[in-house]
Amino acid sequence: HGFVSCDSRKGDCFLHQSGIAVEDRMHIEEGTRVSFDVLEEMGGASAVNVTLIAVRQLATRSDDRLPLND
């Protein structure tokens, strides 16, 4: 688990491995560009439906990055 930073909203979103697409779990590491949906819950915002952004998609996506700490 860790957090995802996002330019389109204030603050980071919690990320659990269950929120990452199965095919992308082994390829995502700190600094990897990802696309995700934000699920607002009582405990805060969580990143869900997290997928890797391919290089060709970078021009059309917001600057969402997977950091931060584990």
Question: How would you explain this protein's 3D organization?
Answer:
This protein is mostly beta strands. The protein is 0% helix and 39% strand. It has no helices and 5 strands. The protein has strands spanning 2-6, 13-15, 34-41, 44-52, 64-65. The strands form 2 sheets. The protein has a 3-stranded antiparallel beta sheet with strand order 2-1-5, with no helix packed on it. Strand 1 and strand 2 form a beta hairpin. The protein starts with a strand and ends in a 5-residue tail after the last strand.
Topology:
Layout: E1 2-6, E2 13-15, E3 34-41, E4 44-52, E5 64-65
Antiparallel strand pairs: 1-2, 1-5, 3-4
Global morphology: globular
Q: What letter string, H or E per element, gives the SSE order?
A: EEEEE
Unreliable stretches covering 5 or more consecutive residues: 56-61
The largest pleated sheet is described as: 3 strands, antiparallel
Task: State the helicity in percent bands.
Answer: under 10%
Which structural class fits the helix and strand makeup? mainly beta
Strand order of the largest sheet: 2-1-5
Radius of gyration: 11 Å
Mean pLDDT across residues: 76
Number of helices: 0
Fraction in beta strands = 35-45%
Question: Termini, distance in Å?
Answer: 6 Å
- The strand count comes to 5
Compose a concise summary of this entry.
By secondary structure, this protein is mostly beta strands. The protein contains no helices and five strands. A three-stranded antiparallel sheet has the order 2-1-5, with no helix packed on it. Strands 3-4 form a two-stranded antiparallel ribbon.
